[in-house]
Amino acid sequence: MKSTNRYNLPEPLFKAMQSDEKEIQPNRISVTTLIAPPLIRKLSIEHWNEMEEDVSEKLWALLGTSIHEVLQKYGIGETLEVEKFLKLQQGNWTIMGYVDLIDKSIKSIEDYKTTSVWSFLLGDNTSWEEQLNCYAYLAVKSGYEIEHLFINAILRDWQVNKVGTKDYPEIPFKRKEVKLWTFQEQESYIKKRLDLFEHEAQECTDEEKWKRGGQIALMQDGRKKALKLYDNEDEANKITLIKGQHFEARPVEYFKCLNYCRVRKFCPYNPYRDAYGSEEGYDKNDL
To answer: In the chain, what are the domains?
Structure first.
């Protein structure tokens, strides 16, 4: 996979963000890949030498890398293990993962994220729970005792003038405990995920494509915000409109397919592939 610098970012940034990923090896899988759609791994293997990733797409990830370097420098203590590499042989697979921090004093696994305030507060953070429970399974199999899982979030778009509003954090940092599954639940989840990767990769689900829209909006003339959203026309047709109201169909969009999937150019299911599939990437305004 090749790194590009289309926006001419300064040389130090370009060098820092150049891809150092190695070509995917059969029967070796990271935790982050395990919880992701199998189709992405399949297409990555098939098109590795054709894939390009512009370093501009990794600017936020650079902040996460910086945090990890801080952890390595200052996460020193008898009970702390930073950037702990874990691996486990599970059937024909080798599962691998780097855990940001293991605190043996409280028997915890801690992961550091850079994210937006509302993504942290209101977003679907299912993948965080899946990731940390996979780490917990690897850790327990490696001899650790794990009783707690934490996300330590650096909130990159925090604004001081919003402090005091409902649930808004007082500082650009929030710590959250994640549900710890039972060992049996962790093991069952991992076996089910591995089974998906052992069969022909299927089209990603709407959830994996980050589907948005597709509802029927009940609108009031002169207002931009919908009065109510209905999942389909059958639900909307049960409503009797009053004067000044009308229905408006919300277009369906798949945000990951549009701009965020690394194999979007090669995916036969990408709804935007024919409309715009150049090396320059996808721009909603060009569709």
So the answer is: 2-197 (3.90.320.10), 211-274 (no CATH)
